[in-house]
Design goal:
By secondary structure, this protein is of the alpha/beta class. The chain is built from 20 helices and twelve strands. It has an eight-stranded mixed beta sheet with strand order 4-8-2-1-9-10-12-11, with helices on both faces. Strands 3-5 form a two-stranded antiparallel sheet. Strand 1, helix 3 and strand 2 form a beta-alpha-beta unit. Helix 5 packs across helix 13 and helix 6 runs antiparallel to helix 8.
Amino acid sequence: MRIIVEENAKKKDKTNHKQSCKEHKQMMKSAVDKLQDNFIKRKNSADTMSQPYFIGNTMAVDMLNLENNECSESPRSESHTSPLEKDYSILSAGCGNLRNVIQTIVSLPNTFVGKLHTTMNDQDPFVQARNVLFLYMMIAFADKDDIAGIVTTIWYSLHLSEEHHTFLKSCLCKLVETEQPDLIKSMHDVVDLDDKDFRLIQKVWQKWLGIESCRKHPQYINLQQQRDELYNSEKGNALDVENYKKELDDAYRDSVKEWFKYGIFLPTADARRQRLDYGNPTLTGFIYREADYVEHRPEPASVKYEYCIKPELHPFGEWDHLLVRKFSTNNCLIDTYYRYIEDQIRQFILLFQSTKYTISFNIGNCLEIEHILLERKYDRVFTSNIADIVGTERLLAQYKPCLNPDNKFATIVNQYWAWYPFFPAAMVSDPEHDRNGLGEKAFRHAARDTGTNFEDLKHQFPAYHQEYFNSTNYFVAYLRAELTACRRIPGGPTPPSGILKFRDVKECQGLRMRDFRQEQNKVVPFLYRRNVRHVSMMSRHMSRMVEWHLP
C-alpha cells in the first residue's frame, strides 16, 4: 500500500503551502473552540444517551497481547518469574459486549498459568444485562450440548427457533427469581457484581421475560418491522450500509444482504431456519431519540423496549475478517462467521472452567468509579472512545493512579472515533476539488491496487482510497487542539495562551504516549488496514487507537 505524503506536494507549490498552513491554523482554532464547548457541556458526565451497543462498532481485540509486551523480553535469570506465571488485571471502561474478553482469553498462550481478572464497566444496564446473561449460560450450562452455538445465535439472531427461545426464557426465569449471592454461586464465584447493579439488570431480564416473542401471537412485538423502521429512519447510517454492500466481493455480497434483510444468524444448512417462530427479546432496549448528554439514565423498568441496534452494526464487524478467513474460506459469511464465533465461544467456555479467570461487572459513569480503581492495580486500561466525550486529559488523570507501577508494560488505550469532523481535510478530497492533487493520486493508487475503475471510484463513498491518503498531520493537530480545549475549561489550571505543542500531548499527565509517527503500538494497532479486511470495516473508518504508559 502506498501512502501519499503531503510534504511532497508542499515543496512543489509554496503558494499552496502557505495557503494550506493558513487554513490549517484556522481549522485548529475552530476545533479548539468547538471542543471546549463540547467538554464544558459534558463536564459532569461521560454519559451519552444512545442505543445499547449489543453489537459493537469495532473488532474484537486481545486486550493483553502478552506476546508483544511482557513476553517480548528474555527473562533476566532462571529465578526470574516468567510473564506466563504472573497475574494480570484489565479494566475495560465503556466495555460494550463480551467480544474483547473472549478474544483476550482465547488468545492467551497455552502455557499461561497465571490468573487474569477483567473489570467491565459500562453505563448501559441493557448491555450489562446481556453480558451477565451470556456468561450465566456459558458457565452454568457449560456441559449442555451445543451451548456455544446457542449463545452465538442468541447473541446475533433477530429470529429464534422454539428450542433456542425456550432455553433463553428458562434462563431469564431463573435469573429474575434468584438472589445476587445465589447467582454468583451458580457461576462458581468467577463472576461478580454488587447487589445494586444486580437489581438494576434484573429489571431488564424481567422486561425481556415479559415481551411476547411468539410471531403467531396477536401481541407479538414484531421485531422485524421495528428493525426495518429503524433502518429507514436513519438515512445516513443506512447509506453507509448500502455502500458497504456494494463494495463487498461478489462472493460475499448475497450472504451479507441476507443478514441485513432478515437478521437471521444460523448456518444456512441448519434445519431450524425453517421454523424461526420467535423474536429475540434480548435485542430490545431503550432508544433515546434526541441524542444528548445527561447525568441520569431512565430506570430500565420504566421505558419502552424496542429493537435498538443501529443499522450499520453487524456481526461481521465485530470479528477481524483476517482471523475469520484463517479459520474457514467458505464464501458464505453467515456460515463462516457463525462457525468462527461459535468456536471462539467454545474455547472460552472450556478455558473459563478454570479458576484462573474472573470477571467483575460495574454499571455507572466511568468517571465515578473510584471505589473500583482502589481495589487493584491494572496492567491494561481500555477506555473505548470516551476521550471523544470528556477529553484525553480527564481520562488519563482518572486512570493513571490505577496503572500497575510494577509493570512497565502497563498501558492506557484511548480510542478516537469522532475526531475527523473537526478537520474535514483529513478526508481524501474528490479529484475535482483537490488543490494539491493528493486526492487524485490516492484515488489512482487505490483504483490500481484494488482493480476498481478510476471513474467509478470517484463516485464512491471514501473507502478504498482513504487508506492511501496520509491524514496523520490532521490527527496530530486534533490531539493538540483537544488538549488545549481541555485546559481552557473554566475551573481548571491556567489556560494556555496558544495551541499546545504535540510534546505536551505526548507527556500528558506525566505519562508517555507511544508516538504513532515513529513506532508501532504494543497492545492494539494504531490504525487497521481496511482494504484487507473490508468485510469487517465500514466505508468511513477513521478510528485511531493511542497508547499511554508510565515513564
